Protein: dolichyl-phosphooligosaccharide-protein glycotransferase
Organism: Methanosarcina lacustris Z-7289
Amino acid sequence: MNSEDHPASVFKDKIKSSWPYALAVSIIGLLALWIRILPSKSVFLGNGFVRFGGNDPWYHMRTVNALLANYPNRMFFNPMTNYPNGNFIHFGPLFDQMIAITSLILGLGNPSQGLVNWVGAYFPAVLGALTVIPVYYLGKCLGGHKTGILAAILIAFAPGQFLSRSMIGFTDHHVAETFFSTFFILFFMLALISAKKKGLRFEHVINKEWKVLKEPLIYSVIAGVMYSAYQLAWPGASLFLFVVLVYAVFQYILNNFRKESSDYLGITGIVTFLVSAILILPFVHPDMGFSMFYYSWFHVVTAFGAMIGFVFLSLIEREFNRRNIKGYYYPLVIFGIGVVGLIAAKIVVPSLYSLVITAPEAVFGIKTGGASTIAEASSIFYEGGAFTLSRAFGNFTTSGFLVSFLGMFILTASLVRKPKPEEVLVLVWSLLMLLAIYGQNRFAYYYSVNVAVLSAYVGGLLLEMVKWDQLNEKFKSSVKSLADIPGFLKFVKIEQVIAVLAIAVVLIYPVYGSAMQLTTGTGGPDGTWIEACLWLQSNTPDPGMDYNAIYEAPKDGQSFKYPDTAYGVMSWWDYGHWIETIGHRMPNANPFQAGIGGRRGSIDEVNQPGASTFFTAQSEEEASAVLEAVDPNPDKAGARYIVSDVEMATGKFYAMTAWTLDSEGYYKSYLTGSGYQSLPSKRYFDSMESRLHILDGNGLKQYRMVHETWASQTQEVGYKQVYNYLFGGSIPETDTGYVKIFEYVKGAKITGTTSPNESVNINTTILTSQGRTFGYSQSATSDSEGRYEFTVPYSTEGPISGQTQFDTAPSGPYVVSYGGATKEVKVSEEAVLKGEEVKV
């Protein structure tokens, strides 16, 4: 054997030739990590508080802490949210386990809360940086090292949702989705390339020719592992199963037209999804039926279904070849079998049939009604009902987005020749991800990978046109030290310099510039919400629930049994996880869109009780009826506290109305000095949200403000100006607490007598936790016998032990006035809480 052909020499040569690229990818990965941890000061606050970004990251940290408190048992059902129903946790277990295991290792089995928070905060940034690796190899498979390096650079700085969701503190499963789905596509692609290169046939499997089988099977098994990891990171991972199946059908059809064997594809698909089905099986909860959003039989059945699909596609192809049937009949047969399969599923497993039919619309369709107000679920191409490319350009940069289309066009054009399987896979994958962001812009973090790979593919073709590979080989052969570089430069051609500059200016610089603009902060609750939630935790009664305990889910048709001390906190769904995780209280609504109420199909439906119906209610009585209806116990309200912020009263108010499918009339066109303007109308100011936040609950009988945070400059002043100008109000036109907390109480009954049919007023001055004062008043008319009654929510005597430790209360007694007489009335907290009578 020639010494140069010795395995050790070959391995040594491979290491020698690949280390510069490994070093380059490592440096790119470190740059990707650096840009993701730039806003660390907005995450690690000076007081030791760790502010995670967004909404769902808080829930992940909630489940991580529950996991660590009960390790290795995880929480599957959580009664501490969506009160009084609770929620199954449809997040995958893998992301939380990765954080928990890392924390346990670094904490030597007993990690502190500070360490857990630190690991959780850095975890998405690390995963985002590591995504550089599979993207590099995807680019390399398409166009060699140069394409791979360029793809790695582009994904490292890719702006938009991929960067924001892999930023420090954004501890959500989205970055894990991208990480594992990209690795899945990579290893599936490597399996295809290897199997095609080796001419893999089913006969090789039957004859156990391991020399041919080894490499493709290893890649296929790893692809199955990565798909399972992806499923365990996000239950909706069947999106990529759909991608692979669509690709497979298309590849089988192409191969049949060309009379090429597709055995390599069939074996790859069968092994990949067999491995996945086996790995996901231990995580199935049989009581979940065929739910797509929990770990149910759906995931096992679809994986086995995909495997069987590859078997049938291969068997049909072999029969076509044996009978020498023309290739254009193949897609017709596939279509017919698909229709028969759906009919069979409808008869045998109707729930699975329903999921298969509705899933494409759920992913790719444009949302309407309340769902259209969910930012991440709206189409990337439509904003306010109008077509736009601005959000696409913001996510991928203008040049990157357009160049990715050029890449798909080139790949499509290549179909007329003999395209490689990896090229067809990238084309189908990219087209379906483009369709996915048409339905939901959240999938932009997936399409960022496609844009990086496609743009790098185009850049790589440009470098090929200027013979970059020849220059690269010349560099390797002539440059042995720094002193050789000047001599090498004479071989560099002007067109090569121009090509590199074009790639830098058109592709690299825009993504870097856009990425840097996203490093100023990470979002999440601002100081007012943090303060409000911490206030809830410290100043409201313990609901009687073990916060980190693992509770069993109620059986079908039954409700979770809460202790009598349990209660809900009503707010808009955006804030549910903050209330639960920071405040340790049970929100009625949460970012899983649970507890919102309202309507889904049409205005003719019953307006279900929930957050949307409560905050849009047109009277206190209507709002209280909603609270009472939320809890199935007729003697108990669904919420004890209501938390509002100024965004709910202004910009987010439309979303509340949209969930009821009754959004007309809250804003009307009024003639002002500046012409006609759309302004809040009487219907808006009659809403419970306006009564609470804009009007401070003045005049309400059973709702009292118990705390407010500091004020910020917002739209609140403008709303108050409209109220005073159009509706004769006299409220101070100032910004008040950004977040306000109210309590729903029975209210004390203040009774007395005066002359029949006499106008009677009651008022007091409320002093808030911010030193602000506002007036509280009610009016009534005595009856024919001179009796009058007021129900008032505020205690003049201060809080009592075991109940709300409010810091917003009357600065003095109530004053009852009628005719020329006035009387002062003091009201105890017991009277307010028990609805007792206080006689004047």
